[in-house]
Amino acid sequence: MRVPGPDTRVVELRVHGILGTTGDALTDSVASVDVAGDGVGRIVRPADRLRRPVPGPMLSAGERTVPRVVEGYVWGGMTSGGWGKATWALLFPFALANVAHWMLPSPGRGNVLSRGLSGVLRALLRLSALLLTMLMVAQLAVVGLDLLAAQCLRPDSGCLGFVPDTVRELDVLRAAVGLLPVALVVLLMHRLSSVSWHVSAGRSEGTHHSATAPILPGSNVVSDPDTAALRALHVAGALSIVAFLALGGPSGWALDPRWLISAALIVFSVVGVLVMDDPTGSNSHRRGQAFRAALHRGPRRTLMSVSGLVLLSVVVFPGSLSSALPGSGGTIDAITALMVTTCIVVAVLLVPAALLARSGWKQVPAQLRPWAGGWMAAPMLMIACLLGSGFGAGLALSIRQALGDSSLLLPAAYDDLAIFWGTAAALLIAVGIVLVPYVLVRNWRAAQTEGPVPDEVALLHAGRQQDQKSAAAAWRLADLQRRNVHRALLVIAGVLTACTALTMLLRYFGLPRTAWSNWLIALGVATLAALAIGLLRMVFLAATERKTARYLGILCDLTLFWPREAHPVVPPCYALKVIPELAARATEHLADPNTRVVLVGHSQGSLLAAVATARLMESLPEEDRERVGLVTAGSQLQWAYPRAFPGVVPHDSLRDLSGSLGGRWRSLCRGTDSIGGAVSTWNRQVFDGMLIGVGFRTDGTAGPLPAATRGPTGALVLGGDHWLPDPQRGPFSFRRWVPGVLGHTDYSGDPEWDRAVAMAAGLEAPTRAAALPLITPTTTSTPSASKASGPTAAGSEVADAQGVHAQGGDGGSLTLVITGRGERAASIATASTDAEAEAGAESPAGNGPGVDERTRVWNEAEAAEESKSGSENGTATGAGSGTWTGAEGDSGGATETSQSESTANGKPSEAAEHADDSSRAEQSVLPEITEPRGRTAPWERGLALRSSSAER
What we know:
There is one protein chain. The protein is of the alpha/beta class. The protein has 29 helices and 20 strands. The strands form five sheets. A ten-stranded mixed β-sheet has the order 2-3-6-1-7-8-9-15-14-13, sandwiched between helices. Strands 10-11-12 form a three-stranded antiparallel β-sheet. Strands 16-17-18 form a three-stranded antiparallel β-sheet, with no helix packed on it.
């Protein structure tokens, strides 16, 4: 890393998360202005009153300040806004089927069986996606051609009496009314799936294969050049299935050439999606190469044109439309049965595929391993298929109910779907009634076992009783939600599987229907109608109301990150535009050798920023890579993405990215955040008054880390994770302060934000291994060592032989009493750190002493202690039962003393008196806490002992 010079500046390039945001909010300014981008992906900066871009506030880095430029990348317009994007919600089942592909486990390197299973699973997922498209289009044809044209508008029907008889007597006109809207829907699907975002920067995808494990996170998130061919197969299959249904379906075998052509086109589409699998075209020997070459632009157009002509011929020569169409039931049954069979085969084959991929993550701790062992693609695919079929059935049932004619008939499969969704609704309600109280009671019992305030919370909010209580409840709730997201998906998948089995029993084994089955049908009809009407209403509100559009955009934000792979009929992937443009903007700034670029991502933006940083690490020369840093805030890069998408963001790739950045990856975390969490550390625990854990090291390995340090803002820094106090400490002078528990919001308002950016830029390093005591709120009126040292001091709480209790107050000294074996007690006290002192030190009005004065006071007290301590292995507690005390005012203050040093023959020593006077004079000032000698993590003690033994 180059030493920062006088011309060094930092560019902070921010990326927002889900729900979108404005340029003003992203850059923390009252006004912002675009400085680059194409209006879809906007790069903004803060602006002055004349709408001119201005740099951000100066960045404090240790004892100096560095110029900073704040920029933000606004991509929310790609997923929400207007009628066009609102209707994307109707394609949500397609998007889920596409997401299921990216959840597949990576095939083992050099394992032929694993690679073969991966290829089969990818082919089956593409087949399931095609069947889902055909099913939804066929259900629309049932509504338009069968329910409306053939039944409601027939000449002798009283349905829709305002329709003139001339329309009812013309079969061609009725067929056009029923089929042309379906054809229009297919055309719109083709148009939507043909749209891609224009990338203003050069693509940096390389020749990665989406089926291989990435070296760095997201390196296999690439566009598929076969999407155009796959899209043509979906369009041909959708148009052909409508013609096939109108001509009699599977049982309508005849010498009609239209029936034969539509059946041949369906078979061709099925075979095509099965053999087409090479996302980048990097392997010329893979199967389907000849087929892929044959489906270039001309043959694709021919294929879709032939399908359209067959459908047009059905409109012109529709045949008899005097009653319910005989081909509707058979077509819907055949597609549904084939789709359910495919889902079952995928679920079965995923078991050995996940077991073969286990060697890649079996050494990872249990809480970081893939959900369900890498099997989550199966329930995701099942949910997608059942949602798609449910939406079509719900639309048909809702329209029949709205028409108000009891003589209108729907295929028997719709009754089966009604039973299915009625059973599912009943079971989900029952499971919720049972499991939700069970989980809450279990969580409450665990909270009672570990105490009212978890150790980490007590340590983070040392000396603040009210904050500890409010934070403890939020920590438990957030942890409960993070731990049970995948379990909820598995429960839903299990319920849907049970309902599918029950429906198949009722349908194929001819079980008699009773009052219970009729009740389930009624409940299912209500559920499907609510599903269809609710989704259509949400689309309308999203197109007309901005707030609803933002919340509907959550679905797009989460599903449209993934490129079109298994299903091509999904909206364009925003990641393929955002990531290369972020990397290009960073490269543009790095052209200045005095500039350091820090990519900052919040929530979903942390995934975008991490993948963009990985691309920079692959493409930049060594001297430029050293000037790149990464900050993530409220990120899901540990608890969600590596576990749900082990083939895209595996744990090892995050470790390698952390190693390539060499400590310049900082993560802001809150235990109260139910969406974000830790990124680089795990197995955290409080030991002997210290926060310790395991995590990513700067050398690219993973293992035990030095104990956490407490920064001047009150945050605990363990490895690359900065644990922020929530509620924030404060309020502070000259700083924005937000009260209450913030959870997933307003990370940039925390004073630790700037410090993390400075570390990511390589301008500041955390103090190593500061030991921090565990604090529970008990007020002590004086920081005197004599009152705090004994286990029977007033207000103290003494643990049992194996317990740990702490005492302290919100504004006074904080004392920890630890009782171990042999009734040995040690008292340790500390004070919480606040950022007001830092703000005061930087204030031109001189509201507080400067950094040099604070450091001088701290160093004099520490030097006095060291000079008096005669012990070779001296500790902060001295010989026997000593104390480490601190006084905390508005901002906090701390000194370090030893009982054996501070008293000699009953009189305080001169050095201790000087330190005590200094602490009282500087109560509003708190320097960064450093490591008390002798208080190191247990594994560090072992290393020290081995070193000393070797020296002897």
